[in-house]
Amino acid sequence: MPPVLVWFRSDLRVHDNTALAAAARRGPVIAVFLRTMAQWQRHGHGANKLDFWQRGVAALGESLARLNIPLLHRDIGTFQGAPDALLALAQAHGARELHFNHEYPLDEQRRDAQVCERFQAAGLQAVGHHDAVAFAPGELLTGQGEAYRIFTPFRRAWHRALTPERLAIRDTPPPQAPLPIATDPRPGDLPALADVPVARERWPAGEGPAAERLARFLRCRAHHYAAQRDFPALAGTSELSPYLALGMLSHRQCLQAVLAENDGRLAEGDAGLVAWVNELVWREFYRHVAAGFPRVCRHRAFQTHTEALPWRDDDAGFAAWCEGRTGYPLVDAAMRQLTQSGWMHNRLRMLTAMFLAKHLLVDWRRGEAFFLRHLVDGEFCANNGGWQWAASTGTDAVPYFRLFNPTTQSRRFDPDGTFIADLVPELATLPTAQRHDPPRGVRRQLGYPPPIVDHQAARQRALATFQALKEA
After folding, report:
1. pLDDT in tens, 286-328
2. Which long-range contacts (CB under 8 A, 24 or more apart) does 421-428 make?
3. pLDDT tens-digit profile of 248-273?
4. Phi then psi for 197, rounded to 5 degrees?
5. Would you say the pTM of this structure is higher than 0.85?
6. Does residue 252 lie in a domain region?
7. Position 389 pLDDT exceeds 80
8. In sequence order, what are the beta bridge partners of 390?
9. What Cα–Cα distance (Å) separates residue 444 from each residue in 439, 441, 448, 455?
10. Domain end position, chosen among 82, 111, 131
11. Is 181 contained in some domain?
12. What is the spatial distance between Cα 449 and Cα 90, in angstroms, rounded to a whole number?
C-alpha cells in the first residue's frame, strides 16, 4: 500500500489522534511537521509558546519512532508555503493521501483550504478531521440556525447533543513495518526573544508529562476545583492549558477521565469535576466563535458596535500594567507571574484584562497581544475570547458594567496576601491586612508605587464611555 502523510500541527500526540488513527487504517504513515516561524511571529506567538512547541515536536518524534513512523521537518516561513511543501513530500514518497486535524482561526482555515485545493488539482486527497472539538463548528446552532453568541446556551446544547461516540478515544496505531525513510534531524533552536525569559523547567513537553499532570490533577485537586480554583495562592487549577493548546492532551482524554471519576456523568455530580468540564466546554465554545464570527480573527470586536469605543492612548499606563507596577498589588502580582513564568492564573487573567480595558480604557488588543507574547499556553481562540469577554466587546452576557474592584478581589481571593507576598516581594514584610492596599506612606518607604488610577473614578469613566456608546 502507498504511504499516507499525516500533517501534525497543534495535535502533538500519537494517542487519541483522529488524523493519525484514520491515516494508519489507510496505509503506512509518514509524519510531517511544517515550521512556519515567520507566520507564528506574525501571529504574535512568543518565546514560551514557541519553545514549548518545539520541545513538543521533539517528544512527538520520539513517540512516533516507537511506532516506526518517520517524522519529516520542513521550514517554510509562512502558511503560503504549505501547499507546495506538502505536495512535494507526497509526490516524492508516492503518498496518495494527506490527513490533518482542523484548526479554527481564519488564517489556518484558509491555509488548509488551499492545501486541499492543491492536492485535489494534483489528483490526490487531503482529508481534514475535527479532532479538537466534540462538535464541528456549524453542528451546534441556535433555534434561528445561527452560531451561538453566548456561552450558557451553547453549553446546554453541547451537553444535550453529546453522545458516547463523540468522546470515543481513537485507537493508537500499532508499530508499523519500518519504512526506508529516515526521520529528519531535529531542527535548530528557535530564535530567542531577549525580553521574554523562557520558563522551560515548569513545563516539560510531550504527551507523557501531559498524562501525568492529568492523573495528578484528578488524584489531588479535581474534587476541590470548584472551591479552590479562584485562589491563586493555592494549587487549585489543572495547569493543563499548555498541553491542551498544543494537543499533547486531547479533550476526549480529559472528559473520559472525568466520566471515570464521576460515575459516568459530566453535567452533574461532583462539583469540582463539573466545574472543570465547564472550562473545557469554554475552550470549545471559543473555537466555534472564531469559526462562526471570523471578524474576531481580523482584530475586530465580536460586538461590532463597540468598535467605536474611544480607547485611550496611555503608553505610560500600559507600560505600568505590563511591568506589574500599577499600584494594585494583586494586579501587579499577576502580571509578574505572567512575565516570570509564562503562565497566569485564570481568575487573574480576567482581573488584569479588565483592569487594562476598563480601569485604563486601553485597547484590549494591546493586552491580547502582550498575553500571547508571554503565555506558554497562548492560543488564539481562548486568548481572544477571554480578552473580549473582559473588555465587554465579546460574548459576555452581562452588560458593560461588569468591572472588578482589584482590592476587593485581592481580599476575597488572596485573603492572607500570600500570592502577593510571593510575587511582589517588596510587600512581603507588611501585615496581611496592608498587603491588599498599603498606606501611601508605607508605599513610599518600600518603593512601591501609588495606584495609577483611582478605582471609583476609573469605574465612572468606563461606565460613562460605554453608556455614551450605547446611546450614540
Report:
1. 999 999 999 999 999 999 999 999 999 999 999 999 999 999 9
2. 422/233, 422/333, 423/324, 423/332, 423/333, 423/334, 423/336, 423/337, 423/340, 424/324, 424/329, 424/332, 424/333, 424/336, 424/448, 427/329
3. 999 999 999 999 999 999 999 999 99
4. -65, 135
5. yes
6. yes
7. yes
8. none
9. 9, 5, 6, 20
10. 131
11. no
12. 60
- As a residue count, the chain comes to 472
Q: Would you say 79 and 36 are in contact if contact means Cβ atoms under 8 Å apart?
A: yes
- The position carrying cell 500500500 is 1
pLDDT value, residue 185: 85
Kindly provide the b/e burial profile for residues 139-152, where b requires at least 16 CB atoms within 10 angstroms of the residue's own CB. ebeeeeeeebbebe
Residues 121 and 25 in one domain: yes
Q: How far is CA 301 from CA 309, 384, 390, in A?
A: 10, 10, 12
Residues classed as catalytic: 279, 282, 311, 346, 364, 387
**Cβ atoms of 243 and 282 closer than 8 Å:** no
Span between the terminal Cα atoms of the chain, in Å? 65
Nearest Cα neighbor of 265 from 159, 132, 157, 158 is 159
The C-alpha cell at 125 is: 486527497
Name the domain count of the chain.
3
Determine phi and psi for 327, rounding to 5 degrees: 90, 0
Q: Do 245 and 368 sit in the same domain of this protein?
A: no
SS3 232: coil
Grid coordinates representing 466 are: 460605554
* Same domain, residue pair 318 and 266: no
- Return all residues near 294 (Cβ < 8 A) that are at least 6 apart: 106
Q: Look up the domain containing 217 and give its range.
A: 135-169+206-292
